[in-house]
Amino acid sequence: ARVRALLEACASHLQHENEFIHPAIEERMPGAAIAAADDHVDHVAQLESLASKWRPRLLRHAISLRDRLDELAVTDRLAGSKYVFVLTGWVRRRDLDRTREELARASKEVEVVELELTPEDAARAPISRENLRPVRPFEFLMSVLTPPRYGTIDPTPIIAVGFPLFFGLILGDVGYGLVLFALAAWVVWRRRRPEWAVQIGRIMLVASASAVAFGFAFGEFFGTLGERFGMHPLVVDRTTAIVPVLLFSIALGAAQVLLGLVLGIVNAWLERERKEMVEKAAMIVALAAVFGLIGIVARMLPAELTTPSIALLAIALAVLIYTIGIIGPLEVFGVVGNILSYSRLMAIGLSSVILAKVANDLGGMVGNAVLGVIVAALLHALNIALGALSPSIQSARLHYVEFFGKFYKTGGKEFRPFRVSDSPG
Q1: What pTM, to 2 d.p., does this model score?
Q2: How far is CA 39 from CA 33, 42, 50, 287, in A?
């Protein structure tokens, strides 16, 4: 305090002697502060007035200039002479007749010719996704990847089924699912929200509904809280039936990876890649032989299948060595590892159940009822946050890495039709 008083005294002395005001003292002068605030308010008001007056006009000019630049870019594709010109471009097949009609309405001297698609054209052709309305939100999950090559399979409908399925299997709680459903509904239907938030919200609506369905199957409502209200598993209690849930998760993985290999065969056929078709088919045979041998060792299959399984595996490995080289046998083990990665569906889901049980137990151990409810609510809130994030990441990872790697052909580009931009009003 003495040091502060001394500094203020020195500042006051310097003010009178040298006719300047110390900033710290000036800030504490009410008149100067009010005057500065008034100036700031006037300045902001002037800026707002200028913005309201000029912003729409400047936006219109910016959009007009952008459209003009697009027109100039299109003229690079023009070839012509004094009396004729030729313009090439891409049109959706379903829009071809409409394009002809519109151009004929503009001029009777315009001729539209559909060119035959050569392999070179197909390599640079854009793609246009045309999915059913319930599937469209899941295009957001595909937007993080390079678009699929023209003429190959778009996996958006598959991820629209697989993502909610895996999400629900991991979370699998009625209470958590209802909370996430309510949050997703609020995001979708509230005003002034970005488009990406709407897409995520719509995805979460489906995923959280799946979590509610699996929650009834597992008999979980905020963990073990449902037991106190007489809730019981409709299918299985995953806290005790760990092995069945694990086997179910691996079976889902095997089904999806095999589907990926089948789609890989289809893509290879569409692109006339015969060697790749043979490779994918040999991989399917090798996997069938490997899992057949595992079933024989586990005494789930008869021992009489041992010799046929070994023979099939040997033939498949020979074909893989011929198609992709000496690493062919290693690729088989890699694909088996991809399938085993789906065990995380069980493991991460079980960790969520345990955390929910801990939240309920800790809440009950607290002597004060109100404090116990607060503790349990905080832990459940943490688990809900993890329940929204972790299943989303793991479900997306299983699709991107384990599944898409078997068939997804990158290198495409989105179809962006040439059009005049909408005016801001």
Answers
A1: 0.77
A2: 10, 5, 17, 77
